[in-house]
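Document type: protein sequence-to-structure record

Subject area: structural biology

Format: plain text, a pair of labelled lines:
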Amino acid sequence: MSPTPIHLAWSDAVRAIRAEAHARRAPVVIGVTGAVASGKSTLARALTPCVLSSDHYLPDYDQTPEHLRDLPESADLARLRQNLEDLRARRATVMPNWSFESHSRVGEVSVKPAELIVSEGLHALHESVRDQVDIAVYIEATREARWNRAMKRELAGDRPWSMEYLEHFFLTVAEPTFALHAERYRASAHFIVINNEDARGDLA
């Protein structure tokens, strides 16, 4: 049975989600998903230093047709599942390291177990990993708010694409791909966090 979600303002998210995690037996895995530039990474980092981003499980772009790059079938979600299983068992694990400069995997990173673990990304609540997630979080934001954030992120140099290609990828790859799964992910969430331009309170 799907949970009845609790809706949260952005400024209340960390406090409420941590309280729910503390009420459970550790270690606790929180899955955070949402469309591109919804605030997944920001929320994840505010919750815990132990973060596994599904970006690092992406395929090498030069070996993957553009329209397939954001599909869960193209990501190494089996590896993400194994990494989460290790951390839940309090074992250190080794996750892939994916570069936004080369758009490919560039080695691996060791991750130590923690009491609170966050898996964040477009497919953090995908069926192949969902049973490893104790608390599911869906971030909801308007397309306008997310596009503005994506542009600011690009201008800051976080992801070295031209603005033209960013707009192309946002509209023709990222948006329609996530939309295929959004309703299922949202329906499985314990918390729905609203992160629009008028709901940008500080996270604490």
Remarks:
- The CA atoms of residues 37 and 146 lie 5 Å apart.
- The longest strand covers residues 104-111.
